[in-house]
Every structure is written in C-alpha cells, then in structure tokens.
Give the backbone structure.
Amino acid sequence: EKGTYPHYMLKEMDEQPTVIRKIIQAYEGDNGELTIDAEILEALRAADRLYIIAAGTSSHAGLIGKQYFEKMAGIPVEVHISSEFGYNMPLLSEKPLFIFITQSGETADSRQVLVKIKELGYPTLTITNVPGSTLSREADHTLLLHAGPEIAVASTKAYVAQIAVLALAAYVTARANGKDLEFDLKQELAIVANGIQTIIDSKDVLEDIAEDYLKIARNAFFIGRNIDFYVSLEGALKLKEISYIQAEGFAGGELKHGTIALIEEGTPVFALVTQASVALNIRGNVKEVAARGAHPCIIAMAGIDEDGDRLVIPHVHELLTPLVSVVPLQLISYYAALHRRCDVDKPRNLAKSVTVE
Ligand code: F6R
C-alpha cells in the first residue's frame, strides 16, 4: 500500500496537499461555499465556551484551533490534555461544547473524558479521521478529517487535516454569526495546498538541514512566538518520537527564564518566523541563543524573511501558517531519523493508537 515509497511517513507527508484539497471538496456546499452540518453549526453557535480535549499531536492541533475560534468567531476556547482533564476538571462555563480531536477515534485517555462528559449531559463533537470509530459513535456529532488512513506512527497528514477542519469550522461559525472576515478561506486553503507542495518538492533541502543540524545532535530546541510557538511543540514531538533526539518546543521569549541554560556550543535551535507582528522579537531570541553558541536554523515565511534565513517557506494567510510551517519540521524529523538509522514508521515504545489509559 505504500507503493514505491520507502516509508508510510514519507507517503503521508506527500499526501498533504491532496488532503487539503479533499477537505475543501468535502465541505463545499451546493453554492460552492464552505459549510458544515447544520446541527453542528447550531451546537457551535449555542456554546459560550469550547473545551477541546485531545492527546499528543491532536492536542497541538487543538491549540491552533483555539486561535481560530477565538480570533475568527470570538468564542472562548480552552484546550486540555485528555489524561489530565479526566481527573482534574476545571470549572466549566454555563453552556460548554466539548470537542474531542482524535485521529484514530480510539484513544482511551480521550474516551474516558467523553464518557464522563456525557454523564454530565453536555453536548459533544468528535473530530476524527476514522468514521465509525468509538469516539465518533459515542459523541453527539462528528466532523471527519478526510485524510485517508494514516499508518505511520508519527502523525503528519492528520495534524494538517485537523487544523484545516478546525479553521473551516471556526470560519463557518464566524460567518453564521455575521462576523466580517476579510478573506475567503476556500481560496486561502488552495494557496496553502500549493505552498505545502512547494516544500515537498524541495525535500533535498530539508534532508541537508537534517544532516547539517541533527546527525550527531544530543538535543534540539524549537522556538516560535504566537501561533509559531504551538507549531514548535509539534516540531519537537515529531523529532523526539522518530529520531529519539531530546527536543523541546518553547515560546521564544520564555527561553531566557531558565531553559537558555541548556544552550551549548552547537545546540540546534529551529526558529519559526511566520508572524509579522512578532518577527523582530523572535529574531531577537535567535540572537540571544546564537550569542551562547547555538546553531540556529531560521525558517521564515516569504515576505518577512531576511538574508541568512536557512529556509523560506511560501507566503500564506497569517492564521494558516501552521499548515505550511509544520511540513519542513516533519521532513527534518524524518531525515534526521533516517540519518540516525531509526525505524521511522515504527518507533520504539510507541503504538499507533493508544487504547490504554
Ligand atoms: C504523534 C502521535 C500521538 C497521537 C496521540 C493521539 O505523532 O501520533 O501523539 O497524536 O496519541 O492520538 P489520536 O489523535 O488518535 O487520539
């Protein structure tokens, strides 16, 4: 099924532009506009607060989803890790809607929260890649990711699909609430699909970066500010999972409050620069680590790039940058794992779906 590909992970990363295009098609109404099921839209509009519950990569997608619902639709959102939420529930708002994000739809940590929330009688929505999965069957509503089966243990195309579907749901909700959004999400997602393709077509650059920065590294840092911070968390998780390099995702400005002590001569620091509003700040943070000997790799978006940036990624709408900026991080992890002779599709100690609590 992986055809001529050496690994499922590579195949699944390559599929990402197609996944975005499939999502656009799947959520296109008769009038050509993006739409979601009327009952789900009602549930989203009725909520005074959204509680996103997820684990691992899916929780990282949730952090981006929070930005979308808050910035586009003006609905407050909390993001919680399933394994914590189940045993340490925060105070809830009056009309919460619970959104479970789960590629597999089978994650036990997330399911146990769903069971408790149903007992409390609150409405639930599952965003999943697997129709008929446990969390899809047990929630009131389901939004599908349309990413196709994800086989590699490290989640790639499902993460991108989760972010796209969250953007879409937030956009449709915002429009239904009469918010004046000054962009056409359908068009912007099409631009994203092309942007991802451009990165995929220049894989050799990412292979070089992996060799250059990570072939013998003991640890690595991923930094960003604003939405780039959340993508940094995902970049670090990917690297840990498949290359076994200790990695941390960090908010650029927070490093100096302790973690900068770990920077040594040659420590790789991957910095994302996609948000114009904080570009100068994150570049300042890169200078701080470089002054302490770090080996910085700046990944900047076209338009706010500067001389000396290691990689320039195509320009997309500022809210949608995670869909594009995560792709080089996925590819860098993949090639780092290959350079270090790790089993990319089946990393040690991990299973594709974690069905125990
Ligand atoms: C990371 C990864 C895991 C999953 C997590 C949740 O690459 O695959 O962190 O994201 O176990 O799984 P789902 O989304 O199936 O609930």
Remarks:
- The two ends are 31 Å apart (CA to CA).
- The longest strand covers residues 96-102.
